[in-house]
Amino acid sequence: MIGPEDVEAAAHVTGGVTHRTPTVTSRTLDQLVGASVFVKAECLQRTGSFKFRGAYNKIASLSREERRRGVVAFSSGNHAQAVALAARVLGAEATIVMPADAPSLKLEATRGYDAAVVTYDRYTEDREAIAASLAEERGLTVVPPFEDPLVMAGQGTAALELLHDAGELDLFLAPMSGGGLMAGCATIVRARSPSARVIGVEPEASDDTRRSLEAGERVTLPEVPRTIADALQLRCPGAQTFEVNRRLLDGVVTASDAELVAAMRFAFERMKLVVEPGGVAALAALLAGRVETGGRVGLILSGGNIGADRFAELVLEK
Fold first, then answer.
1. Which residues of 142-176 are buried (b: 16+ CB within 10 A; e: fewer)?
2. 201 in the Ramachandran plot: left (φ > 0), alpha (ψ -120 to 50) or beta?
3. What would the pLDDT profile of 40-99 be if each residue is shown by its tens digit?
4. 71: helix, coil or strand?
5. Could you tell me if 97 and 130 are in contact, meaning their C-beta atoms sit under 8 angstroms apart?
6. Quick one: pLDDT at residue 101?
7. Which of 61, 74, 275, 295 pairs as cysteine with 170 (C-beta 3.0–4.6 A)?
8. Which residues are tagged catalytic?
9. What distances in angstroms separate CA 83 from CA 10, 57, 86, 207, 233, one per listed residue?
10. How far is it, in rounded angstroms, from Cα 38 to Cα 214?
């Protein structure tokens, strides 16, 4: 479990290394949803997503010997890039387990940060088992994408900055996959803006946290979800993150792939921001009317790692 003091401590560790990304507003957006909306543009973070915050906070905590031996992580792309860069900045070698069908942009960027990439089939192989085996064989430290208090706390610094810029909120929204971003953010939002409703957003096809909250326990989807939001393709929320989120969330809503694309187009045309499908989930739910609004709304655009060809393909598709 983590507390607001852990998020505040992470802010001291990551400050000056992570970008203090802008909080963006749009009069058009405010008019469409009937609220004052404050958008935290983590698509402009180093490596293109919020993931750099948690990865750096975790690797910075390792001893010199642990860094010397190296780290290993598993990710579809955003955490991969974040660990690769954080490791390079902190003088550690990184090995990343990535799905063979990960977007080429993310694969190339991860290798560009000097990480060694081990690929696997996301539909038939277990990425965590592969990473655990590599860790045991080589003495590496696993840097989980969400199942770690230091990772969660690091991700929460995005909401800490948002609250500093926007002030108290009536509603906070963020995308959800494993739940690390929301766990960290909800922790600090509840402390700094206690009256705010906290809502997670998942793709319709990947609603494992929504189902888990309804069931009162972690639910595993029968197969890897098929959605354009590759960063949010998870079958089950994390054990640690679920324990945090079940206490702090007011609920989870979903957005369809079509709604994700509409939000990508809106962010591009109206806010001049390029956001990947998973990164735009919170905005998509807001624009689609999936959550009751009013007052002051804060949300996170969690990532922008999408190639120009894929972006054009999605937003021009009829």
1. bbbbbbbbbbbbbbbbbbbbbbeebeebbbbbbbb
2. beta
3. 999 999 999 999 999 999 999 999 999 999 999 998 789 999 999 999 999 999 999 998
4. strand
5. yes
6. 87
7. 295
8. 51, 302
9. 16, 10, 5, 26, 19
10. 29
